[in-house]
Structures
1.
Amino acid sequence: MVGILIMSHGDCASGLLSAASLIMGELPLCKAVGLYPGESLEDFINKVRKVIEEFPNGVEILCLVDLFGGTPANTAALLYEMRGHRCITGVNLPMLLEILSSRETRNIDELVAIGQEAGKRGILNLADSLERQA
């Protein structure tokens, strides 16, 4: 099973993980790390490294981050260069739920594609959707 590491500014990562566990129950191999005021890039990298060490050896890790170009994404880019961890930016709840429900049977490359598609499909103009149903 692929491990999931959600990284964000503030409490977004922990909030997404909390919402996903409310919907799906216990989520093994899932962790969240937030960047808070006063933390430097170096502080955040060290915090993320400690969390990664909590995953069992040999587990592939898929990083989901909130914003391309922000400190969490830059940290994920560094981790990709160092360890090959894959990353998707723009994490949202539909993306996370689809990845979580697929990760026992899919490899990491498939999960990246699934996550990107689910993230896009989960963004709708509610008024348009309601008008189509009427």
2.
Amino acid sequence: MKRKQSLIFFTVLAILFIVTISTTVSLYTDWLFFNELNYESVFKKIFSTKLILGMISGLLALVFLLVNITFANKASFPPVDLLFEGQTRISFNIEMLGKWVKPLTVIIGIIASFFAGIWGSALWKEVLVFQNRMNTGIGDPIFGKDISFYLFQLPLLGYMKDFASLVIVTAIFIVLFNYFLRGGINLQERNIYIDKKVKMHVGILAGLFIFNTSFGFYLDQFNLLFSSHGVIFGAGYTDIHARLFAIRLLIVLTLLSGILFITGILRGSWKIAFFPLGFTALAYALGLLIYPALLQNLKVAPNELALEQPFIKHHISFTRHGYDLDRIEVRPFDASYNLTMKDIERNNATIKNIRLWDDTPLLRTYSQLQQIRTYYRFQDVDNDRYFINGEYMQVMLSPRELSYEDLPSRSWINEKLVFTHGFGISMGPVSRISREGLPEFIIKDIPPVSSADLEVTRPEIYFGELSSDYVIVKTKVLEFDYPTSDKNVYTSYEGDGGVKLSSLFRKVIFAMNFRTEKILLSSDITSESRILYNRNIIERARKIAPFLLYDPDPYIVVSDDGRLFWFIDAYTVSNKVPYSKPLNKNINYMRNSVKVVVDAYNGSMYFYISDPEDVIIKVYSNIFPGLFVPLSEMSEDLMKHVRYPKGYLRSQATMFSTYHMVDPKIFYNKEDLWEIPSHGDKTIEPYYTIMRLPEEKKEEYILLLPYTPSKRDNLAAWLAGRCDMPNYGKLIVYTFPRDRLVFGPRQIDARIDQDSYISQQLTLWGQRGSQVIRGSLLVIPIESSLLYVQPLYLAAEDKGGLPELRRVILTYEKNVVMEQNLELGLQRLFGGRITPSVIEDVSEAVRASLDELAREALRTYEQLNERQRQGDWAGYGEQLRKMEQILKKMAE
């Protein structure tokens, strides 16, 4: 028996030792990581808060549990005899069981306290924001409490209530287990015998649980402001005039029930103990279930608009605040169709920056033309703007990252010492195409070759979206840099990123952390070697500031000196703004308050505050004084590439489609409900473009998204998010006149499909074994008119087909044209000659178009002869009409 006890003891000790060592190693490597980035104060604040909270919550739980376990262990009970069917008698040796049960329950209590400490340490964020809370100046309309109470105090109070419930229930289970095995609770043939001491002890614990339930009802009155209804989110008429009174009554009733329950248990009176509880349960059913349902159905439902109107106002107001919709400026857009070639030339910058390349086909094209080697990968395509050769230009660019899954030989040396980084980027203008229908490049190849005044001088990408967990640089093994036609070029890391493996101790620590002995045993690692870890940029940022929500689509930027930087948009979010409708279950408040910039070579990281008015980021700035810096401290060349995030604008646009209606009656009847239109089977995504906004003097980089009325296809408005300084972050909605039809994307799509020439061409290309890819339909505001642009790509049917941009469809007013490029389409729509400032190399493009039409005419002529030989006069007439259309096009 003693041998078994010793074995159990040493097993538990070994497990504790392993857990302790593993935790210590993880903490030490995290400390080195924070220290590397000069954010050790952030680590200290989080770690010390976790440690203190863990100790306090664990100690409170331990004291409470041990007091109850000690009381239970001191109780003594007579021998236990279990009698079954009046004949079978089973006797238990209580003293023998007590020798096992008493220490066992103590051990269970200690283990439960340990987990309570872990649970408490996880509340570090809630405690820190509670300590550093500040008022917003906005009070809720029901209780008059500042919104900061709901953002920074209510969550912690809820967790405290849950913690108390958990500890009390744990104590009840432990003492019941103790009493049952030691005879305090005895199963008889037809009943259960419970000792008086057990009743008193468990009764007091149950009374404490009832007191805690009363505190829960106190919190529930505030949680009414987050209740969900058919019309609004938040407390409605029934909540305020029925449920709120019932909850306040239940606060008092449960408090009294707890006192009477304990009194009844001590006196041995079941009536005193349970009658108040029954009355409270009845009050709960009547006050929170039956009466509110009757009030809602008999009074509110027949008069819903009149009774709910003030609450609808609260709902609209606080939802607009939750998503920062109040700062959206609404302007009229008097759409007209008087666009001329002079207007086109005056908006030259807009025309040149109409995006003809969609992300998906361009990513396939980049991957086939610029991937160079199979172990490189373009993860996605980013959209940005640069001054290139003095011209403000919108570009598409993609970083060439290293794909570890595609390495030719996946040995530890290759993955961790040799293949350490990606290399360079590919960049091209959004609207230019070669004669073959392929994108033009501003920056391409390995090493990067630039055709403009923008160059990449530090192309190595050690930190990115595809980066592995760790690599070791500055070793005796040279790193693979890039391939050439006849050899591989090697390099050695020259930066100061990562942590030095300067001692045997550090090697041991990192070997344990990454669970590999190779770090410790490798002879290629020297005292100057550095280990780069947490290399995925989003995980890297999340490690430093885990309380922010990060955009899943970071983008890469080339600085003026040719270095590569990652931009990550970060958000402060909450689900505790009263009356604000949740976008999903976890968010009803959202701000794009932080721009994170990560050096792709060194891994250095900076957190810039982009929304200084956000109260949550103000609180976090107080908690971590050295973490955030103002956006004004960002270097000027990087500041030019700050952009309004797509995901954030999509969220705001989704909410604004409903909450632009501020009149409660209009909102209730959904008279002016908008929606984001669909193109094909997908909802249109916001898209970046360079254009001159109405009433503005120059072009700027904006994020644009159109609206249509709900269940209708015409346009209702378009939303513009401004990206350039000093207007960054301003949102404008341009509304169309209601008495005029402005075509929406579906209507334009239908008109394109109805065009006989375009339809025939699409069918013909499809019959030739080509995959026709219809690109995004873009709505481009120019002056007071709208131009619709859709690119067409052709690719081979197989997966390896290279998408080529072969046609551009343009729609203006009632005219639909399809041409080889944007400039020729504009020429057909607006007539006249295109000036050299608008189109480059027009004559070659026109000749190419005529050549294509001539080839098409020849094919049609051959079809004419074939139909004549077959006697197919209906087919002959169809081909004759097609020939007529082709000849008319050639004559234009």
